[in-house]
Design goal:
Elements: E1 9-13, H1 18-28, E2 33-38, H2 43-49, E3 61-64, H3 70-84, E4 89-92, H4 118-145, E5 151-156, H5 169-190, E6 194-201, H6 213-219, H7 226-238, E7 246-250, E8 253-257, H8 265-272, H9 274-287
Parallel strand pairs: 1-2, 1-4, 2-3, 4-5, 5-6, 6-7
Antiparallel strand pairs: 7-8
Helix pairs in contact: 1-7, 3-4, 4-5
Length: 293
């Protein structure tokens, strides 16, 4: 356990570069204890070189973590929780671009092999795993420590979670999924003091960009600065009432995006009559052991 429980504890995945590194530096300036998760071989030296916000700010802890491995994420959360018995903030930020071209032309005599779904494993599946762990530890924190503060998770989705993205369709599909996950879980978890929100960055200079792409976007004036990304994080961290929100981050602007409008009453009823329709039916299946809780 830490000698002092006064430092909020944060887990940030993909923390050794790009948005994750900027967020780590930003939260260190706010006196957080940060657990940095990444697979970057230079992670330990990056963590040790970061500036601390105050003389009392704890040094960040780097943990080599493949988020696509649930046991690896579980070990990450266990280590972070052991610091002072609480996990206050989780940035599910790690992500990769497509590892396979779905538009590849196959020869007539060549049968296709199974698709490489690594992108979905990292960008979507790992966030489900992280959410499960974060909620479990958030509930454990509340019971064991008795703290009343809200615990918060922010998912890094993308503007491509609401628009098509032909060059990286797996990435696009994963980010669409993250928006659905955020909107479907955030409002319900908020009732027990846990918020789940997502940021949808436009083009931000990160290591995902191929060589030369950042310069091309910058020349056209379409580069979103990291300061706007951090402004979005601050908006979601500082407000206890936001949950289920999806914030599109572009240039110097934040746009709180809402789901598409229902075309008719039938669709609205099917989507929103949770107590009368879906919860009753699925509740019966869960009681019968047909659906895992």
């Amino acid at each position: 356990m830490s000698q002092s429980p006064t430092h909020p504890v944060a887990i940030i995945t993909g923390a050794a570069s790009g948005i994750g590194l900027a967020l780590t530096t930003h939260l260190l300036s706010k006196n957080y204890k940060i657990f940095m998760a990444d697979i970057n071989p230079h992670g330990p030296s990056i963590a040790s070189s970061l500036p601390l916000g105050f003389p009392s700010t704890p040094t960040p802890t780097y943990l080599h973590t493949d988020v696509a491995s649930f046991p690896a994420q579980a070990a990450l959360f266990k280590t972070a929780f052991a610091y002072n018995g609480s996990i206050d903030f989780f940035a599910a930020n790690a992500g990769i671009d497509d590892r396979e071209d779905v538009f590849k032309e196959w020869g007539s005599a060549e049968e296709p092999n199974a698709p490489d779904l690594t992108t979905l494993d990292v960008d979507l599946g790992a966030v489900f795993g992280g959410l499960k762990l974060f909620v479990w530890y958030a509930r454990k924190s509340g019971r064991e420590v008795g703290r009343g503060r809200v615990r918060k998770m922010v998912v890094t989705a993308s503007m491509m979670g609401i628009y098509p993205f032909e060059t990286n369709p797996q990435y696009c599909a994963a980010k669409h999924g993250l928006i659905g996950l955020t909107r479907s879980t955030g409002p319900k978890f908020a009732k027990e003091g846990i918020t789940v929100n997502a940021i949808l960055p436009a083009f931000v200079p990160t290591g995902l960009a191929p060589d030369g792409l950042i310069e091309k976007v910058e020349m056209k004036g379409h580069l979103t600065p990291m300061s706007t990304i951090l402004k979005a994080y601050d908006a979601l961290i500082d407000n206890d009432d936001f949950s289920g929100e999806t914030v599109e981050v572009t240039l110097d602007e934040l746009h709180f995006r809402k789901p598409v409008e229902f075309p008719n009453y039938s669709q609205k009823w099917l989507a929103e009559d949770l107590d009368g329709l879906w919860l009753g039916s699925y509740g019966e299946k869960r009681e019968a052991g047909e659906v895992a809780l």
